[in-house]
Design goal:
alpha+beta; Alpha-Beta Plaits; four-stranded antiparallel sheet; 18% strand
Amino acid sequence: MAGLGTLQRVRQPLRDRALPRLLPQPIRSTVAMFTIGMLMKVKPGCYPEYKKAHDELWPAIAKSMSDNQVSMQIFLYRDQLFLHAMAPTEADWDQSRQHPELKRWHDYMATLLQADEKGVIIFEELEKAFTFGDFRD
């Protein structure tokens, strides 16, 4: 059966992998990057607004992330949000988190995400279990 040794997405059909690779392999980076993974929990019924807010990310927040070369992805699994971000250095990541608009953004997100009794979003920072390739320290 073709494709048994290949990872695939759930509900994604197996693809014919017999075609030769025509494009060159990507150049591997030798620059260390700071990466972080976090979990958050979205409140019941709040995901559509959460998604819309991120689809329409405030320009000042987007600029701060861009200026500090922060890349970010957030994935949804049931009521859990998994955030994966990277930046050239931890200092760049920290600097991107200092923008004055971020407090207002977090206050807004705290209405959509699980927060503590003070209204601070509960982020669970994840331990790295495995790294490979460009993500290696």
